[in-house]
Amino acid sequence: MDALDPAPPSPRRRRHRWLRRLLWLPLLFVLVTVLQVAVLRFVDPPTSAFMLARQGEAWRQGDWGFRVAHDWRDLEHISPYLPLAVIAAEDQNFAVHAGFDFKAIEKAIDHNARGKRVRGGSTISQQVAKNLFLWQGRSWLRKGLEAWYTLLIELMWPKERILEVHVNVAEFGDGIYGAQAAARSYWGKDAARLTPEQSARLAAVLPSPRRYSAVKPGPYVQRRAAWIQRQMRQLGGREYLEQLD
């Protein structure tokens, strides 16, 4: 070996170099995720992780003609009955919690432990985090990432923005995402013209939109939609949404 050639780094120095690189990974993760959430505070997401997963699922099954239905509408161009119905159905403490409703989680755990119909305790903020950025599943990794994104969303977005994104990316039927696509697919109208009954039906199918139908509701959806409409009135109707401004 030429005396002027630098000596190769020792195994110990190589380990230290890789260790330093690994220590940067958490910071990089924080920076990337903060940037994601910050951008979507102002930019309407053209798609979501769940939409991409559904499209990929169709292609893997050989259904090359399948296309996700999605058409963004700002909140002022969506009937106020739909966001109200979603809050009544899924997250009645949405206006006051900071992303997690621990009382609802406790009730859901107790409800499910008694062997009744499985009920979730996720808030609207958690659902936005999951639908936008993550994948379906129940692993601890996914739940941890969901909690992290939920914290970022609550810190960086106003409640009105969270609700706007939710009603635009939620799945209301197989491959049908958002208020506008649902309104056009089911009733041939714009989302701005959704009635209280139609909005309640859409909110009623959210726990399992591929199993239940908003346009041809069975007994469960009919009962749940009626309950949601009662809850909408108890919340104060359309005036309830004013506190989210």
CATH H level, superfamily name = Biosynthetic peptidoglycan transglycosylase-like
Q: Helicity range of the residues?
A: 55-70%
Major sheet strand order:
1-3-2
Order of helices and strands: HHEHHHHHEEHHH
Which helices and strands occur, and which strands form pairs?
Elements (H helix, E strand, L loop, with lengths): L10 H30 L8 H12 L8 E2 L10 H10 L11 H12 L10 H10 L6 H17 L2 H11 L1 E3 L2 E2 L1 H9 L8 H9 L14 H17 L10
Parallel strand pairs: 1-3
Antiparallel strand pairs: 2-3
Helix pairs in contact: 1-6, 3-9, 3-10, 5-6, 5-7, 9-10
Summarize the structure.
This protein has 245 residues and is an all-alpha fold. It is 56% helix and 3% strand.
Mind explaining what this structure looks like?
- Helix content is about 55%, strand content about 5%.
- It is mostly helical.
- It has a single domain, classed as Biosynthetic peptidoglycan transglycosylase-like (Penicillin binding protein transpeptidase fold), CATH 1.10.3810.10.
- Strands 1-3-2 form a three-stranded mixed β-sheet.
- The N and C termini lie far apart (about 70 Å).
- The model has no long low-confidence stretch (mean pLDDT about 90).
